[in-house]
Records
---
Amino acid sequence: MSDIDLANIEAFCAELAEGGKAISMRYFRQKTAFEQKEDLSPVTIADQSIEAYMRERIHAAFPDHGIVGEEMEAEEGGRYTWYIDPIDGTKSFISGMPFYGLLAALRDTEEDRTVFGMIDIPAIGERWTGTGDAARFNGAPAKVSACTALADAQIYTTSQDIFSDGDWQVYDRISRAARFRRFGGDCYIYGLLASGYIDLVIETSLKTFDFMALMPIIEGAGGIITDWEGRALTPQSDGRVVAAATRALLDEVLDMINGPGLARARQA
């Protein structure tokens, strides 16, 4: 088993979150300028400053740990690697929407397991943490809903724009079979799933620093998060993610995703 002290990791991540919040709130709703990266996603001085701060703190506290982040080159380390996203939801941040988040996760590379994750929503003071065995929201236990059927599920995704044409056909078909569907939220919607307010999230195009922090939170709250084939998420995953409150709900969705009709749509 991992020899890391998770209580210390949680306290350290709380410090990262508070420091990141102090930076992001200096720029939030200040009409911050932004640039487009090669993948056409936006980046601001807030993204860059927060990641620089997080890396500095990780280097000081855990000099032998690796770091994978959104804005800077990956740094190799020993047994443990941090996955960090200084502002998950930069478009939300730029446009004044308060549901952007700071993500931090610690992965044990020997056990190939993410041992701790944090979703921090600085503008509204909400935070989820998880170890895979338990999850908490602002210090209190977090638990997913008991939803077992797609017809009863509340489903979210961040934006239609993250899907290819074929993958959008998959999401559109599944979400129209749900009780209702909504859009927007970035990492925030995974926290809402962990707390039982929504039941299902389906997305594509996620990077490792987007989903690593989500895994131990969703799983710790009793939910399940996999790729579209039902496999565990790893650094080699293709960015297609489905998170569900229950195994029965996940299995129903995976059967639809990988059934003949939608499988053909994905390949089109």
---
Amino acid sequence: MGLGIAGMAAAIGLREAGWTPVIVERAPERRRGGYFVGLMPKGRQAAVDLGIDGHLHTRNPPDGGNAWSLTRRGDREPGVGFLHQPGDPAAVLRGDIEAALWQGISGVEVRFATTPVELVDTGADVQVDLEDAGTGARYPESFDLVVGADGLRSGVRRLVFGPHEDHMTTWNAMICAFQLQEQVSSFAAADSIISARAGRAVWVFGLADRAPTVLLTYRTDDVAGQFTGSPVQRLRTVFSGMDDPVVRYALDALDAAPEFLFDSVHQVRMPRWSSGRVVLLGDAAWCLNLYSGMGATSALLGAADLGRALRANPDDLEAALAAWESRLRPLIRKHQRIARVKQQMFVPSSRPVEALRSVVLRLARRARDRRLAKCAGTRLSVD
């Protein structure tokens, strides 16, 4: 269930294991575009395993591009961008991964504007009542396995495992992500820019061959209240007083953005990701969240591993799902914990943390510069 990264990747993994997947998608058509994603080494290997690496368009600026941090006075100084972290992430848009997966699922049946409204696991199969969003008509169908890969607020999870509140942890934070039409004035086209203050931050992610994407993020003790009124006006109120050129540019660009993501930040914590013949995958199962930088990577990896587990246990679904989860869960648990630290790097919680963050990033920048200089010296000596 779901035509996102996890759903399409799962369809490829299932097909390679000898299954005949059917993708059910509640939207009327496939999404395109989307926000910045840094695909980590495990995610890139999973793309190879799923056979989509040849279709995947990456957008890394040369040498990771320049990154700039803005001081409280609005001055720029050399910074450390998302692409400068260990592992050398591949810069892509969410839509780049989905476009590659779309080519990879060629021949797979996809049903748009369709939603599961009831699931009953009989032990021998799963009886699913599906609803056509266009007509409102419902019809039953049986499946040998249901994969809930339908996002943070998964309908499959709600139907089988209970209310969202039972599984979604609240992080008291909000995000807004969207595509710029052009780079912030006075910065090079592929530059990344970070303006981070206690409780609120703006990140501009530079790309090699198109305008950057933007992430606005802030902390709040009233998550429910953030959804009242206009999101754009809410963001203008939150970021008032943070008067630097990047913040002003981002807020003005948001006014003209044809679409944007505005949502609260959560993780999904579950004692098990499967029940009988129903299994959850990606954000529906574990949602590492945007701060982790591992959402797309874990979705691809989880799907590829699920296919391997099903191939290794062709006649024992219970054993396959147990083996898959035992292999994957330590990695997910690790990155769920690390995401709390990464949140402080994205949006520090206080002025002292803001100051500490600046020191850590300056040291990281110097270490990176020394590493690059050493690599350059090695290349020169070889030449």
